Input
Amino acid sequence: MSLTIALNRGRILKECLPLLARAGIEPLDDIHSSRKLIFDATGGYRLIVMRGSDVPTYVEHGVADVGITGKDTILEYGDGADFYERLDLGIGRCRLMVAAPVGADIDTGPLRVATKFVNVARSWYDGLGRQVTVIPLAGAIEIAPLTGLADVIVDIVDTGNTLRANGLEERERIVDISTRLIVNRASQKTRFDAVQTLVERLRAVTAPGS
Output
Protein backbone atom coordinates (compact mmCIF):
# COMPACT_ATOMS: atom_id res chain seq x y z
CA MET A 1 0.00 0.00 0.00
CA SER A 2 1.35 3.45 -0.94
CA LEU A 3 2.47 5.94 1.69
CA THR A 4 0.14 8.95 1.67
CA ILE A 5 1.56 12.48 2.02
CA ALA A 6 -0.67 15.48 2.78
CA LEU A 7 0.65 18.64 1.15
CA ASN A 8 0.01 22.27 2.06
CA ARG A 9 -1.14 24.06 -1.10
CA GLY A 10 0.14 27.50 -2.06
CA ARG A 11 3.68 28.72 -1.48
CA ILE A 12 4.74 25.66 0.50
CA LEU A 13 3.53 23.35 -2.28
CA LYS A 14 5.59 25.25 -4.87
CA GLU A 15 8.69 24.98 -2.72
CA CYS A 16 8.25 21.38 -1.58
CA LEU A 17 7.56 19.79 -4.99
CA PRO A 18 11.17 20.29 -6.20
CA LEU A 19 12.36 18.93 -2.84
CA LEU A 20 10.19 15.85 -3.22
CA ALA A 21 11.41 15.40 -6.80
CA ARG A 22 15.02 15.36 -5.61
CA ALA A 23 13.95 12.66 -3.15
CA GLY A 24 12.50 10.59 -6.02
CA ILE A 25 8.84 11.51 -5.47
CA GLU A 26 7.10 13.15 -8.42
CA PRO A 27 3.34 13.30 -9.14
CA LEU A 28 2.30 11.42 -12.27
CA ASP A 29 0.07 14.39 -13.25
CA ASP A 30 0.83 18.09 -13.22
CA ILE A 31 -0.38 19.28 -9.82
CA HIS A 32 -0.41 22.93 -10.87
CA SER A 33 -2.64 22.48 -13.92
CA SER A 34 -4.86 19.62 -12.73
CA ARG A 35 -8.13 20.06 -10.84
CA LYS A 36 -7.47 16.78 -9.04
CA LEU A 37 -6.56 16.86 -5.37
CA ILE A 38 -5.21 13.30 -5.04
CA PHE A 39 -2.22 12.22 -7.13
CA ASP A 40 -0.29 9.01 -7.54
CA ALA A 41 3.46 9.62 -7.48
CA THR A 42 6.67 7.82 -8.32
CA GLY A 43 8.22 5.63 -5.66
CA GLY A 44 4.91 4.20 -4.50
CA TYR A 45 3.59 7.38 -2.90
CA ARG A 46 0.23 9.16 -2.99
CA LEU A 47 -0.07 12.93 -2.61
CA ILE A 48 -3.13 14.81 -1.33
CA VAL A 49 -3.23 18.60 -1.78
CA MET A 50 -5.24 20.64 0.76
CA ARG A 51 -5.43 23.79 2.85
CA GLY A 52 -2.52 24.06 5.23
CA SER A 53 -4.77 24.15 8.29
CA ASP A 54 -6.21 20.76 7.29
CA VAL A 55 -2.87 18.93 6.99
CA PRO A 56 -2.49 18.18 10.74
CA THR A 57 -6.10 16.92 10.88
CA TYR A 58 -5.59 14.45 8.04
CA VAL A 59 -2.34 13.24 9.58
CA GLU A 60 -3.71 12.99 13.12
CA HIS A 61 -6.67 10.90 11.93
CA GLY A 62 -4.47 8.63 9.83
CA VAL A 63 -5.93 9.52 6.42
CA ALA A 64 -2.41 10.68 5.56
CA ASP A 65 0.63 8.88 6.93
CA VAL A 66 2.73 12.02 6.82
CA GLY A 67 2.17 15.71 6.14
CA ILE A 68 4.17 18.71 5.02
CA THR A 69 3.08 22.06 6.47
CA GLY A 70 4.36 25.17 8.20
CA LYS A 71 5.42 25.36 11.82
CA ASP A 72 2.83 28.13 12.26
CA THR A 73 0.06 25.67 11.36
CA ILE A 74 1.42 23.11 13.80
CA LEU A 75 1.60 25.66 16.62
CA GLU A 76 -1.94 26.86 15.94
CA TYR A 77 -3.19 23.26 15.96
CA GLY A 78 -2.18 23.07 19.61
CA ASP A 79 -0.01 21.22 22.12
CA GLY A 80 -2.38 18.25 22.21
CA ALA A 81 -1.72 17.32 18.58
CA ASP A 82 -1.46 13.55 18.20
CA PHE A 83 1.38 13.27 15.67
CA TYR A 84 5.16 13.44 15.55
CA GLU A 85 7.15 16.33 14.13
CA ARG A 86 10.07 14.56 12.45
CA LEU A 87 11.98 16.95 10.21
CA ASP A 88 12.57 20.63 9.47
CA LEU A 89 12.65 20.86 5.67
CA GLY A 90 14.21 24.31 5.73
CA ILE A 91 11.83 25.84 3.18
CA GLY A 92 9.02 28.38 3.49
CA ARG A 93 11.05 30.42 5.97
CA CYS A 94 9.31 33.42 7.52
CA ARG A 95 8.44 34.69 10.98
CA LEU A 96 5.34 35.06 13.11
CA MET A 97 5.20 38.63 14.37
CA VAL A 98 3.23 41.17 16.32
CA ALA A 99 2.80 44.28 14.15
CA ALA A 100 1.24 47.65 14.89
CA PRO A 101 0.79 51.06 13.25
CA VAL A 102 4.10 52.91 13.05
CA GLY A 103 4.77 54.71 16.32
CA ALA A 104 1.67 53.40 18.10
CA ASP A 105 1.88 53.00 21.89
CA ILE A 106 1.04 49.36 22.57
CA ASP A 107 3.20 48.77 25.64
CA THR A 108 0.54 49.25 28.29
CA GLY A 109 -3.14 48.59 28.81
CA PRO A 110 -5.47 46.05 27.19
CA LEU A 111 -5.02 45.25 23.51
CA ARG A 112 -7.29 44.17 20.69
CA VAL A 113 -5.42 41.62 18.59
CA ALA A 114 -6.55 40.63 15.09
CA THR A 115 -5.19 37.34 13.77
CA LYS A 116 -5.92 33.99 12.19
CA PHE A 117 -3.51 32.46 14.71
CA VAL A 118 -5.91 32.65 17.63
CA ASN A 119 -4.31 29.98 19.82
CA VAL A 120 -0.78 31.25 19.23
CA ALA A 121 -1.77 34.85 19.99
CA ARG A 122 -3.56 33.93 23.22
CA SER A 123 -0.62 31.81 24.35
CA TRP A 124 1.85 34.59 23.56
CA TYR A 125 -0.02 37.26 25.48
CA ASP A 126 -0.84 34.90 28.35
CA GLY A 127 2.90 34.40 28.70
CA LEU A 128 3.39 38.16 28.85
CA GLY A 129 0.57 38.62 31.35
CA ARG A 130 -1.20 41.06 29.01
CA GLN A 131 -4.96 41.51 28.90
CA VAL A 132 -6.06 41.08 25.29
CA THR A 133 -9.16 40.55 23.21
CA VAL A 134 -8.35 38.27 20.27
CA ILE A 135 -10.37 38.98 17.13
CA PRO A 136 -10.30 36.06 14.65
CA LEU A 137 -9.88 37.06 11.00
CA ALA A 138 -9.37 34.87 7.93
CA GLY A 139 -7.64 37.33 5.63
CA ALA A 140 -6.48 40.90 4.99
CA ILE A 141 -5.25 41.09 8.58
CA GLU A 142 -3.25 44.26 7.88
CA ILE A 143 -6.33 46.45 7.51
CA ALA A 144 -7.61 45.70 11.04
CA PRO A 145 -5.54 48.43 12.77
CA LEU A 146 -6.17 50.86 9.91
CA THR A 147 -9.93 50.58 10.32
CA GLY A 148 -9.92 50.66 14.11
CA LEU A 149 -10.93 47.03 14.50
CA ALA A 150 -7.75 46.12 16.37
CA ASP A 151 -4.69 47.71 17.95
CA VAL A 152 -2.20 45.12 16.67
CA ILE A 153 -2.06 42.06 14.48
CA VAL A 154 -0.33 38.70 14.82
CA ASP A 155 0.59 37.42 11.39
CA ILE A 156 3.18 35.75 9.19
CA VAL A 157 5.82 38.15 7.84
CA ASP A 158 8.21 37.39 5.01
CA THR A 159 9.70 40.54 3.46
CA GLY A 160 7.64 42.99 5.51
CA ASN A 161 6.63 44.89 2.36
CA THR A 162 2.89 44.42 2.97
CA LEU A 163 3.22 45.76 6.50
CA ARG A 164 5.09 48.86 5.35
CA ALA A 165 2.63 49.47 2.51
CA ASN A 166 -0.16 49.58 5.10
CA GLY A 167 1.60 51.79 7.64
CA LEU A 168 2.53 48.96 10.01
CA GLU A 169 5.81 47.93 11.59
CA GLU A 170 7.13 44.78 13.23
CA ARG A 171 7.13 44.99 17.02
CA GLU A 172 7.66 41.54 18.55
CA ARG A 173 8.95 38.33 17.03
CA ILE A 174 6.94 35.39 18.35
CA VAL A 175 8.72 32.56 16.52
CA ASP A 176 10.67 31.79 13.36
CA ILE A 177 8.75 29.58 10.94
CA SER A 178 9.77 26.93 8.42
CA THR A 179 8.14 23.92 6.79
CA ARG A 180 8.04 20.66 8.76
CA LEU A 181 7.37 16.98 8.11
CA ILE A 182 4.84 15.48 10.53
CA VAL A 183 4.00 11.78 10.92
CA ASN A 184 0.91 9.95 12.13
CA ARG A 185 1.67 8.11 15.38
CA ALA A 186 0.25 4.78 14.19
CA SER A 187 2.05 5.00 10.83
CA GLN A 188 5.31 5.70 12.65
CA LYS A 189 4.95 2.29 14.33
CA THR A 190 3.15 0.10 11.80
CA ARG A 191 4.86 1.50 8.70
CA PHE A 192 8.17 2.38 10.31
CA ASP A 193 10.43 1.30 7.43
CA ALA A 194 8.46 3.26 4.80
CA VAL A 195 8.23 6.34 7.00
CA GLN A 196 11.90 6.20 7.93
CA THR A 197 12.91 5.82 4.29
CA LEU A 198 10.97 8.96 3.42
CA VAL A 199 12.48 10.88 6.34
CA GLU A 200 16.01 9.85 5.34
CA ARG A 201 15.43 10.74 1.68
CA LEU A 202 14.17 14.18 2.61
CA ARG A 203 16.91 14.69 5.18
CA ALA A 204 19.49 13.92 2.50
CA VAL A 205 18.12 16.51 0.06
CA THR A 206 17.69 19.21 2.72
CA ALA A 207 21.13 18.81 4.30
CA PRO A 208 23.52 21.78 3.79
CA GLY A 209 25.31 21.46 0.47
CA SER A 210 22.88 18.88 -0.91
Summary: Residues 94-176 form a domain with the D-Maltodextrin-Binding Protein; domain 2 fold (CATH 3.40.190.10). The chain has a mean pLDDT of 94. Helices lie at 11-22, 55-60, 71-77, 118-128, 143-146, 161-165, 185-190, 192-206.
